[in-house]
Specification:
It contains 10 helices and 8 strands. By secondary structure, it is α+β, with helices and mostly antiparallel strands. Strand 7 and strand 8 form a beta hairpin.
Length: 313
């Protein structure tokens, strides 16, 4: 409908729509784009602003236009060495790439097409001269994984946002003002104490934040599914956690840049996004390799299949 669409991402809300719609969705590093003093960047500084586009070029050019701090920002990412638009077409060099084929925090299965997308991307990266192996940060799993702590933080954040909107509108926000799932999440969040929220933050800091050690040990790029299942039909009642999974959420917590690319399509013509994650502050690496993949396997002419309803006249 438009050449570029504004979006923000707290746990995957740029990357997941990009995957479902066959678009490019870059979540920048924490502090790369300003949220200014008037908007809280989330309890973990995980909320970032950017866009959805059809091409890596447009994503990079718009990042050049909007990146940078404003007075009052709590987080500021290191400045790039050169404009991001200049990274499009630049040689990414020889990268060490890890493939993640499991969601260590949710036991539900990942769709075969989503796993096939990661494997196919791994083969494509190998053909482009990169070293690829199955590997991912061990800090994603275990007792300090995402499961419990993120649930406490996410639910309490929903409750806090509804309270903020009540204050802003001058009237209490009630169950008839939001979707049932949102209200249920807020009610859950109000049951947690301040001590429990602080426990959850500390738990994540001791666990998921250590994921960046994997990059420090010599990896350049992690490739995962973006979503756990194929895009659901509009209006369908689905278990969002089972459909979306937790592949995008860790990198919002760590603040690392991640991009979803429409590199794979199901037999029914549905887009299947693949997520690429780089070290903190290395959007340049993501843009270089994303542009390389786009050139090797273009998607500009591909559009999701539409299921048109039958109308009797």
């Amino acid at each position: 409908m438009v050449a570029a669409a504004h979006a923000n991402d707290g746990y995957g809300s740029i990357r997941i729509p990009a995957s479902a719609c066959g678009l490019v969705g870059l979540k920048p590093s924490r502090g790369r784009t300003s949220v200014g003093p008037n908007r809280a960047p989330g309890l973990l500084g995980n909320v970032v602003e950017h866009v959805l586009t059809r091409s890596v070029r447009d994503t990079a050019a718009i990042l050049d236009a909007v990146a940078g701090p404003m007075p009052g920002d709590l987080f500021v990412a290191p400045p790039p060495a050169r404009p991001y638009h200049d990274e499009v077409g630049a040689d990414p060099g020889h990268l060490r790439v890890g493939l993640q084929l499991q969601d260590p925090n949710l036991p539900s299965p990942t769709a075969p097409e989503c796993l096939a997308a990661v494997r196919a991307t791994g083969r494509l990266l190998e053909s482009l001269g990169h070293a690829v192996e199955e590997s991912f940060p061990s800090a994603l799993s275990g007792p300090t994984g995402l499961g419990g702590p993120l649930g406490v933080i996410g639910a309490s954040a929903v409750a806090a946002r509804l309270d903020a909107w009540s204050e802003r509108t001058g009237r209490p926000i009630g169950p008839d003002d939001v979707e049932p799932a949102t209200w249920a999440r807020a009610e859950e969040g109000r049951r947690y104490t301040a001590a429990q929220v602080h426990w959850a933050v500390q738990r994540l800091m001791a666990g998921v934040m250590r994921c960046q050690e994997w990059w420090a040990e010599g990896f350049d790029l992690l490739v995962t599914p973006t979503m756990k299942q194929l895009p659901p039909k509009i209006g369908a009642e689905v278990d969002l956690r089972a459909v979306f999974g937790l592949f995008t959420m860790p990198w919002s917590v760590t603040g690392q840049p991640a991009i979803s690319l429409p590199l794979y399509w199901s037999e029914d013509g549905l887009p299947v996004g693949v997520q690429l994650v780089a070290a903190y502050g290395r959007e340049d690496v993501l843009i270089r390799v994303a542009a390389q993949l786009e050139q090797a396997q273009p998607w500009a002419s591909r559009w999701p299949a539409l299921e048109r309803p039958h109308v009797s006249l």
